[in-house]
Amino acid sequence: MLSEEAKKEILTEIGQHEHREAACLEALKVVQKHQGWVSDEGIKDIASLLGMTSDELDAVATFYPFIFRRPVGRHVIYLCDTVSCWIMGYETMLAHLTKRLGITMGQTTPDGRFTLLPVSCIGACDYAPAMMIDQELHGNLTQEKIDSVLDQYQ
Amino acid sequence: MECPLTKDLRPDGQPLSIGEYERAGGYQALRKTLRDVTPEKVQEEVKAAKLRGRGGAGFPTGEKWSFVPMGADAPRPKYIISNSDEMEPGAFKDRLLMEGNPHQLIEGLIIGAYAVQADFAYIFLRWEYLQSARRLTNAIKEAYESGYLGGNILGTGYSLEMRLHTSAGRYICGEETALLNALEGKRGVPRSKPPFPQISGLWGRPAVVNNAETLCNIPHIISKGAQWYRGLSRSEDGGTKIYGVSGQVRKPGAWELPMGTTIREILEEHGGGMREGYRLRGIIPGGASTDFLLEDNLDLQMDYESCQRSGSRLGTGTMIILDDRTCPVGLVLNLIKFFARESCGWCTPCREGLPWLALTLDAIEKGEGRQEDLDILASHCRLLGPGHTFCALAPGAVEPLQSALKYFREDFERHIKEKKCPWR
After folding, report:
1. Does A54 lie in the same domain as A84?
2. Which domain holds residue A53?
3. Set of chain B residues whose Cβ sits within 8 Å of the Cβ of A135
4. Who among A29, A83, A127 is closest to B331 (CB)?
5. What DSSP character marks residue B147?
6. Number of folded domains that form chain A
7. Strand duo B120-125 + B161-166: pairing
8. Does residue B243 register a pLDDT over 90?
9. Position B405 pLDDT exceeds 90
10. Are the Cβ atoms of A64 and B169 closer than 8 angstroms?
11. Tell me, what's the ipTM?
């Protein structure tokens, strides 16, 4: 069930739109912020607030890579795999992350600390190779830099 | 050399506050517009300035606005949207402008809104630009507090509401009709045109979508006039352009330069040239969905017509450099995998064709390719080209592939003959 706080935030979002369903992405983000991901139950709860069917809302939720329909770790690493980062050493960075975390793309570490996900060009081509962790950008990556950056996320 | 879009950016990378922006002349163009200039005159001035869209397609901005129904009988509400979903691989120019001077975009968007008499303005921002989101949110709040947004702006009777929409990924959302679907709370898949957005855009009402860099030009055109603006350029098209370079160059980055600056000047003087030990082999001039250019094209002017004449496109003006230590087949495979993943799946040629291209290229890259695969790749470049798909994603995707097949054919053949990637 949605918390009172999440529900209030969603209703505020809805109030800012003339058309309720226009608030659906923000509503999904609210639930994800509170619960870490969006469960089937979450979809049902949000859909009823928006006057959409669960299927309509899920069609939107599953369209977006930054809406998680499965649980993720405490921190999500998005390693950019697109052209400029690829030229500048993406494969080396991926090998390093894979070795250091013991997981491959799409997996979560057994302690639930990190989920590793691929991401399309993040617009940081001037800092390639680059990655995001949660809401922060880390560019000009080297293996050493990755090690020190990961230590900041417990 | 004048750089109107970037001259006020702070060297420390912090955004200009509204006070700093105003002291640098900011919001004067808006004041002048609302006080003295009719919407029609704004459109005419922008047309005369020869400003073309900076998002990739290069459509003339004033013309784009002119298709919005005007006058008392026009359907309402009307909408204008800043396409700030910069997701073209290799592009990071709008980020620079939004992070450094968010009020410039907001002022441009308000003047654009006035020109088409819009009631609502949206900034459609990609999720990953969190720094831009924070700064734009704050700047919109400041603009409301100073009376540049909301009801009866500066006492002129014109009203405009502005909202920031942060998306959640998917390249296709940068396609204007997909963007409109996404804003309506639907899956971001493209729509069939006509009707064009200016007639039926958001919730069946008129909407016009302009790229963020495009809109940043508007206040300057209004302040200093079309003639001055055209004079900034070294080509037929008006103004300056934010050019970018990424890849194995000494100083990857983005710079505001006269429209029509040569590739050589951008790459060598601003990008610092190739890094030690790397040689230039190819240039993708305008983001991932443009055809390769070669070293012979270094003196090509980066403007719409010149790029077109050389068999490519200006696109976003942010070039990706292929060096001699990077496998061209691997690079094209990387691009095609990107486009296959980002295909929205709405139309069959794109949904099925791009993964097929990725599989074929992957086989060649791994040394499992056959000579006839090259014909399969070439025929798919035709079958996924203009006229066969619902939107421009797949035709854009095959542009670097078709030119790679032409310019780097022997590299493809070596993979097949040697049964391995010569770069690995």
Report:
1. no
2. 4-61
3. 130
4. A83
5. T
6. 2
7. parallel
8. yes
9. yes
10. yes
11. 0.97
State the DSSP string of B65-95.
Answer: HHTS--STTS-SS-EEEEEE---STT--HHH
Q: Which chain B residue's Cα is nearest to A122? A: B128
Residues of chain B with pLDDT > 90: what percent?
A: 99
pLDDT, tens digit, for every residue of B62-103? 999 999 999 999 999 999 999 999 999 999 999 999 999 999
pTM passes above 0.95: yes
Q: What is the mean pLDDT of residues B346-375?
A: 97
Quick: pLDDT tens for B169-204.
999 999 999 999 999 999 999 999 899 999 999 999
Which domains are delineated in chain B? 18-231 (3.40.50.11540), 241-323 (3.10.20.600), 328-418 (1.20.1440.230)
Burial class (CB in 10 A: 0-12, 13-18, 19+), B169: buried
Q: State both tokens at A23.
A: 């608030």
- CB atoms < 10 A from the CB of B347, how many? 18
Classify residue A99: in a domain, yes or no.
yes
Contact: B91, A125; criterion CB under 8 Å = yes
Asked if A112 and A73 count as a contact pair (C-beta separation under 8 A), the reply is: yes
- For the stretch B217-239, pLDDT in tens is 999 999 999 999 999 999 999 99
Q: Which is nearest to B323 in space by CA: B291, B289, B283, B362?
A: B283
- Residue from B122, B145, B132, B124 nearest B101 by CA: B132
Q: How many CA atoms lie within 13 A of B275 on its CB side?
A: 15
Give the whole-angstrom CA distance, residue B40 versus residue B24: 27
When pLDDT is cut at 50, 70 and 90, the band that residue B377 belongs to is: very high
Instruction: Say whether both A104 and A132 belong to one domain.
Output: yes
User: Are A106 and A47 within one domain?
Assistant: no
CATH of the domain at A146: 3.40.30.10
Of A59, A66, A81, the CB nearest to B127: A66
Query: Using the 8-state DSSP alphabet, how is residue B171 labeled?
Result: G
> Low-confidence residues of chain A, pLDDT below 50?
none
Find the CB nearest A83 among B187, B248, B320: B320
Residue B410 banded pLDDT, cuts 50, 70, 90: very high
